[in-house]
Amino acid sequence: MATGNYLFTSESVSEGHPDKVCDRISDEIVDLFLGTDDQSRVAVETLTTTQKVVLAGEVRCSQEITKEQMIEKAREAVKSIGYEQDGFHWKTMDVDCYVHSQSADIAQGVDSAGNKDEGAGDQGIMFGYACRETESLMPAPIAFSHRILRTMADERHANPSCGLLPDSKSQVTLQYIDGKPTGATSIVVSTQHVEELDQDQIREIVRPHVENALPAGWMCPEDEFYVNPTGKFVIGGPDGDAGLTGRKIIVDTYGGAAPHGGGAFSGKDPTKVDRSAAYAARYLAKNVVAADLADFCVIQLAYAIGVSKPLSVYVHTAGTSRVDENKLAGMLQEVMDLSPRGIREHLGLNRPIYAPSAAYGHFGRNPRENGAFSWERTDLVEALKAAAS
After folding, report:
1. Dist CA 263 CA 245 (whole Å)
2. Do residues 97 and 25 make contact, with C-beta atoms less than 8 angstroms apart?
3. In what order do the strands lie in the sheet with 225-227?
4. Phi-psi category of 348—alpha, beta or left, where left has phi over 0 and alpha has psi -120 to 50?
5. Mean pLDDT score of the chain, rounded to an integer?
6. Nearest to 46 by CA among 269, 246, 236, 264
7. Quick one: pLDDT at residue 127?
8. The pLDDT of residue 110 is above 70
9. Has residue 227 got a pLDDT over 80?
10. pTM over 0.90
11. How far is Cα 254 from Cα 263, in angstroms, rounded to an integer?
């Protein structure tokens, strides 16, 4: 947890960014499999470029899901995002599917058998984070960056004639004084738009989205408000730049304000601890802060492929904890089973809930009735307070 006075910047990208198009398609396929068989195994990557989508990966399901079904899901995702352009159109784009059955070697290491509990789907480290900068207990720069693009997308979907197109990026720089955010020093928004609009017109379309995303009085100086700083942005999305699943992991998490273990989330079923354990770590960190046991919390979990228990549970509170950090690490393991199976059951992750998480961050979102974003609940607060006392 940094103290003193400094500037910190985070960025977000919209659902129409080429990499986010890939994340959305991959997560739609995860949902397709989990909606058919909640024990499905899925690891699907997507590549996009001009009028082209390529699917690759490995899957396992008790019922047959055809390549044609996966291709149709890709088209539905692209249509939902809003791509109907000459260089990338949901109806006319070419989709290749190279998804195949899961490796038996991986399956035997992960599956439960006899007295062996289900193991982690891979080795790796995962981090969770929470702080008091926003109501969602997320860092302010990434929270505001997401909010700008979400409201722009809402306007585009509600009013297709507004001139905005799907591909956009935002970047928010905040001034911190004594370690607390106090206002924006610069804002950058680049958004794809129709040919007829000029840079000044786009600036005024974007302005209210930025002002409404920030607290009152936090808007940056006018000469630090950059909208499409290179000028025209008409060719965008996969037609302007190739996209790949999993290339926006910092956007997906904490905007660089906290560590990241390195693994991407989208396209992976919840037996992959890259996804499920990162969700668990955020869940625990958020509940620690919500329970007022600390003002800042970073949690690291570590796993080995085929091993059910976490190899380590590390808690760091930067001196803000009301409880000894070693004791806190033990408490967390008492209130939640951190085996891959335990995480999935506690958070209800074996459901088709992942497509909405593919853009605008996996964290800081409101839990939904269908179980999506269950890791944002604060239902461990009372158990943690009881354990601490």
Report:
1. 11
2. no
3. 6-13, 164-177, 180-193, 225-227
4. left
5. 95
6. 246
7. 98
8. no
9. yes
10. yes
11. 14
Tell me if 271 sits within 8 A of 110, measured CB to CB: yes
pLDDT of residue 104: 61
132, containing H or E segment: none
Residues 215 and 184 sit within 8 Å (Cβ to Cβ): no
Secondary structure class of 341 (helix, strand, coil): helix
User: 305 has which bridge partners?
Assistant: 120
Q: Residue 115's pLDDT is what?
A: 45
CA torsion sign, 24 to 27 to 33 to 37?
Answer: negative
Tokens 């290339």 found at = 247
Q: What would the DSSP string read from start to end of 185-233?
A: EEEEEEEEE-TT--HHHHHHHHHHHHHHHSPTT-PPPGGGEEESTTS--
- Helix, strand and coil percent figures for the chain, each rounded to 5: 35, 25, 40
**For 123-171, what is each residue's pLDDT tens digit?**
899 999 999 999 999 999 999 999 999 999 999 999 999 999 999 999 9
Which residue carries 């738009």 as its tokens?
193
Question: Which amino acids are annotated catalytic?
Answer: 17, 19-20, 45, 58, 169, 233, 241-242, 247-248, 268, 272, 274
- Is the pLDDT confidence value at 108 over 60? no
Say how many residues make up the chain. Answer: 389
Q: What is the rounded distance in angstroms from the CA atom of residue 108 to the CA atom of residue 238?
A: 37
Cβ(221)–Cβ(188) under 8 Å?
A: no
